[in-house]
Design goal:
Strand content: 25-35%
Helix content: 25-40%
Structural class: alpha+beta
Oligomer: single chain
Strand order of the largest sheet: 1-2-3-5-4
């Protein structure tokens, strides 16, 4: 897995995680939700996205992925988070279009 910052003038910087085997790039769901003003990430995802547009990762099942998040300061060791949400490009733009920032 490769972690990078994705920056666009229109919306700033988000973290991307790319799987080199599939060349699939996804965003940290909580960053997308926060950037666009969504206060309830689960509700926004279930309302705006198809199941193939986001992934819920059970961190206990993927310790290497959890370590990747810890090493990149995307998760704190004191955090008891049990899962993480990854969002596709489609999810990110859908979240923007349904955000409070678009009037």
């Amino acid at each position: 897995m490769k972690v990078e910052k994705f920056t666009r003038e229109e919306f700033g910087t988000l973290t991307t995680i790319t799987n080199p085997d599939t060349d699939t790039t996804m965003f940290i769901g909580s960053e997308v939700a926060k950037m666009w003003g969504h206060t309830n990430l689960r509700q926004a995802i279930s309302r705006l996205c198809n199941k193939d547009e986001y992934k819920v990762i059970k961190l206990a099942k993927y310790p290497d992925f959890k370590e990747l998040l810890l090493c990149n300061n995307l998760l704190h060791r004191s955090n008891s988070l049990k899962s993480g949400n990854l969002a596709s490009f489609t999810t990110m733009y859908s979240s923007l279009l349904h955000s409070r920032l678009i009037a």
